[in-house]
């Protein structure tokens, strides 16, 4: 024991003396090292901007939430703007890479210089010599990247830094779109993406101090033979914030439609009545997506919890609560606090196109449908599926249009909906089963 | 009694005579006889990587002088306090401390050298030469001997690097640059030998490093073999001479005994 303590003590003393010596040397040399580094950076700026007024011509602006750490506005002796330098840094699997990008006032890249890195030198050196040099002379808003080299970590890092600089030069159109609802938006982060269903992604919006301003649920919706990108913004306290149109070229056309939605601002989601809005094509397209989103967001906690916990394996083996319907495994009713019936939930499986080669058996689509008391479909949820990507998605996207429609609507339109795909047929059959059971239980 | 006194006197004389040349030999052994690069093949990584020019070779050599002398001194000073279970880790900490210090000092005062040597400065920590001297010499000898050994070995290493660097730079560029990486007081001058037609760029790269080291090792081996051959010939001659003398003595005795009988 004493021996071990002695060893520990010796190591501690060696460590302490080493630390002190290094600290002392660092203190002694740090100012000079920083001066050297600043001088080296200045040499890079002067190389890019030969007319730079090195004493008073540089204005430094620190950037947060970007691969660019600093933006420097460069001016000549006469005080005229001669360009910008962007100091960027990225990390990848091989370490870090520091880059300075020089851009003239017209947005043309003067040069891209790798100032420091600890990626594999033998890869980076030819990368700089053969590919990074090609950035000079290109417009930063339209940089051509090399597809093959683009697969390497170092090149990807450099590309990210250039892309971040591009956003600072040209402005970030996506951020500007968010700013139409959240004026203080400074940063956004895609927090969730959905592979199927009506919502494409959920994005969190933050201000400069990193305070969460709200969420935007985004989707691509068809409009006049085209697809437009829209989003519905919700505050963190689950009140309505507004509607976002991402494409700035059509933002002006949608101005009135977006304006119409401001009546719901700060309202609880339950209190929103979309029927209040007038019937106009642009309002309708926004209304349709908002309706779908609300129906999903307002899904009762109980419904969600039971769907998440549903054990399909046990259901396959055991008896179902829906006798006579082979697609439906379980059904349960949801009541509000006054014991009034709200909805009926059906969980089950339906055979589509998914196939397991190993067992030579089909892989069913695990799904659920929620039917409201008035017989309209409140929600269709795909829990899991192995359908062919692409073909299956068409059916899933089409499926979203069924939400909000009534019992009879489905029967009338379901054949048109089917999209003539196995997936579409499977989903339609499941919904038909659920509706016929609902009709028996609840009655028309 | 008389014989004993003479014996003691020769012993003392022997001791005093071995002490002074001992330290000198300790210092000079690293240059040729026990040169770390050319004889022990230690520290080959920097010897290949940073020797494309004479000046970077000298720079790396100087850093190794600093680290090796100080680490040898410190290891020798505290050799009795380090438990043997943690000997190697302790040496590594000591060596890395000096390497970090020398790295910071280089970045502050010889920025170009720092840029040029790059990763090879921190890698001095794992240079076998330094750990080797700490373990095989400094941990068994006094401070003065360890310091002299460190200095000699490090200068031998520097000499080897410079020889490689000089050859490579001359063969690849036909010139020798100075004042570019080290603060020598001159601003980037070049000693040009105007041999552009014969320049071989391969010597600027790692392959050239291997070739140069190979050629130097071959030359050194040739000299060594030649020396051994000469020594062998001299030894053979000496043996023959001794045989001749013995034969003569034998004949003399035979003649004497023959004369006596007569």
Summarize the model shown.
The complex is a heterodimer of chains A (444) and B (262). Chain A has 444 residues and is an alpha+beta fold.
Question: Please, could you describe this protein's structure?
Answer:
- Chain A is of the alpha+beta class.
- Chain A folds into four domains: 1-47; 58-170, Enolase-like, domain 1; 174-294, no CATH class; 301-442, no CATH class.
- In chain A, 37% of the residues lie in helices and 27% in strands.
- Chain A has helices spanning 2-48, 121-130, 153-170, 173-179, 248-251, 255-260, 281-297, 301-309, 312-317, 391-400, 407-417, 422-442, and strands spanning 58-62, 68-75, 81-92, 95-103, 109-117, 187-193, 201-206, 212-223, 226-234, 240-245, 328-335, 341-350, 355-356, 361-362, 365-372, 377-384.
- Chain A has a five-stranded antiparallel β-sheet.
- In chain A, strand 6 and strand 7 form a beta hairpin.
- In chain A, helix 10 (391-400) packs parallel to helix 12 and helix 11 (407-417) runs antiparallel to helix 12 (422-442).
- Chain B has 262 residues and is mainly alpha-helical.
- Chain B has one domain.
- Chain B has helices spanning 2-28, 44-49, 54-78, 87-109, 111-117, 128-138, 143-173, 206-261, and strands at residues 175-178, 189-192.
- Chain B has a two-stranded antiparallel sheet with strand order 1-2.
- In chain B, helix 3 packs parallel to helix 6, helix 4 (87-109) packs across helix 6 and helix 6 (128-138) runs antiparallel to helix 7.
- The longest helix of chain B is centred in the C-terminal third of the chain and has 56 residues, at 206-261.
- The radius of gyration of chain B is 26 Å and the shape is flat.
- Chain B starts with a helix and ends with a helix.
- The relative contact order of chain B is 0.13.
- The model of chain B is unreliable at 1-20 (pLDDT under 50).
- Chains A and B meet through helix 1 of A and helix 4 of B.
